[in-house]
Design a protein that fits this description.
The longest helix is centred in the C-terminal third of the chain and has 33 residues. The chain has an eight-stranded parallel β-sheet. A two-stranded antiparallel sheet has the order 1-14. It is of the alpha/beta class and 421 residues long. The protein has one domain: Aldolase class I (TIM Barrel). This is Alpha-hydroxy-acid oxidizing enzyme. Its cofactor is FMN. Keywords: Flavoprotein, FMN, Oxidoreductase.
Length: 421
């Protein structure tokens, strides 16, 4: 075909043909909403968070204890999971809802308790609770949270609220927190038991992390790169805590004021007698401890190594999960946390026996990057990823997820170090 012949096959596009292709995105004035909309994964939020907040704040969320081996091993195990899908199943309408502690959750996810949340974004726990309420999942307020028990209950009444507790040496103060949670409609109490003392979090040590943030020279220099963060911090009410007020010092010093290294099973039994709601024990890493917690009255246990933030080189939650699930059976509900960043991570744990998964860093990345819209987007991403993974596995309901659908390679078969979160 000569040039003239080829030219006869070309024509200028008509407007009627071009118009359908021109679909500009609607103008979004809110920077938080724009950043939330752009994120396609939790890792996208992590990258955005690094640009939005000072380094010490990001490292407080992303870091772990000592050499951070526990954190990276948890991620390496999650990355190594292999799915074994079932085909020719009707997955046109999958249902990811679950029953947690007697009430329905839209997906098998709980927003975990995290400390100092208003330091990540000035709306802090309020933003997270609103997002959890909108998503139809529970939210756990931390003893070391920066919004009070009463404020979260009053401002976000529609959210399912759990309260996380450290037992203090002063039992009267612990009893007061329990009473306040009961009086303000918190349906469950989470006792964290893997914190006899604070873990050695070297990023915080090197960054000089204090509560509230101190204005040293390096902080001022870093602050100049994040003026929006400092403006929000300095023009909103001072940081306050669910359990104490007027604290000034390092994170580790505060933790050691709160943690009681003498806590035993007798104290768990005491708490069971003080609290008539659902009781969850978080920080279980062995079958023996899981069975002891259930025998002492726990309604649920959380297989957890505190996100690798306490003891380095400790058990990897996903690997510990199947043996704990077999041991406790249906005597208590079983949750797990530790490095979960995607819906496929969540589904892997469900296959191995978990009833639900607690996520902390994942929603904090969304909060740091884009405030409440970021947290809502994280919940939406997890929900979508869970549904798609279930469909591809051939599971129409969460009950259809079984251990036969996953394989955990032996240590020698696993990939090398994973990229930082």
């Amino acid at each position: 075909m000569d040039r003239d012949a080829r030219a006869r096959y070309r024509q200028l596009p008509r407007w009627s043909e071009l118009a359908p292709l021109l679909q500009p995105k609607p103008l979004v004035l809110s920077g938080d909403r724009r950043r939330a909309r752009r994120a396609a994964t939790v890792r996208d939020f992590s990258a955005a968070a690094q640009r939005r907040v000072p380094r010490a704040v990001y490292d407080y969320v992303a870091g772990a204890a000592e050499d951070e081996r526990s954190m990276w091993r948890a991620r390496a195990v999650l990355e190594s999971v292999e799915f074994v899908p079932r085909v020719l199943r009707d997955v046109s309408d999958v249902d990811p809802t679950v029953s947690l502690l007697g009430r329905e959750a839209s997906i098998p996810v709980v927003f975990a308790p995290t400390g100092f949340t208003r330091m990540m974004h000035h709306e802090g726990e309020r933003a997270v609770a609103r997002a959890a309420g909108a998503a139809g999942i529970p939210y756990a307020l931390s003893t070391m949270g920066t919004t009070s028990i009463e404020a979260v209950a009053a401002e976000i009444p529609a959210c399912r609220r759990w309260f996380q507790l450290y037992l203090w040496s002063d039992r009267a103060r612990s009893r007061d927190l329990v009473r306040r949670a009961r009086d303000h409609g918190y349906e469950a109490l989470i006792l964290t038991v893997d914190t006899p003392v604070a873990g050695s979090r070297l990023r915080d040590v090197r960054n000089g992390m204090t509560i509230p943030p101190s204005l040293g020279l390096s902080t001022i220099v870093d602050g100049a790169r994040h003026p929006h963060w400092w403006f929000n911090l300095l023009t909103t009410p001072p940081l306050s805590f669910a359990s104490l007020s007027g604290w000034r010092g390092t994170v580790a010093d505060l933790a050691n004021q709160l943690f009681d290294p003498s806590v035993t099973l007798d104290d768990l039994a005491w708490l069971r007698s003080e609290w008539d709601g659902k009781l969850i024990v978080k920080g279980i890493q062995s079958v023996d401890d899981a069975e002891a917690a259930v025998a002492a009255g726990a309604d649920a246990v959380v297989v957890s190594n505190h996100g690798g933030r306490q003891l380095d080189r400790c058990a990897t939650p996903l690997e510990a999960l199947p043996s704990v699930a077999e041991a406790i059976g249906d005597r208590a509900e079983l949750l797990v946390d530790g490095g979960f960043l995607s819906g496929s991570d969540v589904v892997a744990a469900l296959c191995l026996g978990a009833d639900a998964i607690l996520v902390g860093r994942a929603y904090l990345y969304g909060l740091m990057a884009a405030g409440e819209p970021g947290v809502r987007r994280v919940a939406d991403l997890l929900a979508k990823e869970i549904r798609v993974t279930m469909q591809l596995l051939g599971a129409a309901t969460v009950k259809d997820l079984t251990p036969a659908m996953v394989r955990l390679p032996r240590m020698s078969e696993r990939p090398g170090p994973v990229l930082p979160m």
